[in-house]
Design brief:
With about 290 residues, the protein is α+β, with helices and mostly antiparallel strands. The chain has 13 helices and 8 strands. The longest helix has 22 residues. The chain is globular and about 55 Å long.
Amino acid sequence: MRKIREYQPITASPQEIDARGLMVFDDIRRMPSYGEPFSTSFMTIGLNLEGWVRVECDTRPVIFQPHDIAILAPNHVICTRDSSDDYRVMLIVLSPAFREEMQRRYPDIYHDNFNYRFQQSLHLENNQFTVIHQLFHLFLSVSRSDSPRRWDMLGDLLEVLFLLLQDYRKVNGAPIPIPSLHEEMFAQFNEAIVKHWRKSREVKFYADMFHLSPKHFSSVIKQRTGRNALDWINGYAAIKARMMLRYHPEMTVSQMAQYMGFLDQASFSRFFKRYVGMSPTEFRRQA
């Protein structure tokens, strides 16, 4: 089992993904930051070719095995625990701008597949895997082209992919989960955190969006996820702080504290140590 601190393109090349809209990575053998939570703004579709990886998605354990395909919506908290030595996966990564454009063009087919509830994996039979694997390679070829109709072609391929997965789910007898009201609330809460985490880390700020008291709102979130609302808010802020410390060496800790909305560097350092277990300076030194 590998425990190597190595970053794959999802976290290493965000500017390139934003610029291209959709990118395909065809030979990923390691997940980002083993044992350390991370989150990205990209929607990711993963096709597991070989081996297995064990992760936690929003604290829920998931094992991704050979011939599994999974659609992961943006901004969920992922923590990779371990993987087999032969682990290999292909990834289709969509930028926020590309995802929004596809939802606008194809509202019916994309609504369900872009929804939070479709993050779980689907195991493909051998013949199904062959078809999807070939389709991923077609994505790869088109994504690397400079055709002026590149986005149109990629959108059409995504529609084909989603229709195939809907058919395969029915044929394989895989359950199609129907989201509860609480699941929809958590999805909206998660999106609100991503949008407003710098503005406020108070539960009341988010509870007001749902016209609930902070106590009741936090109770609903805990019932759905096992963690209260404040843990989700501060947990996401801690992940962003880790990523900033790792990827923005040009910023001082004081500048980060100001950017993240803390009163001063001391309050940021106390927050960081509480949720990460060490000071920002110590974390940066080990990164």
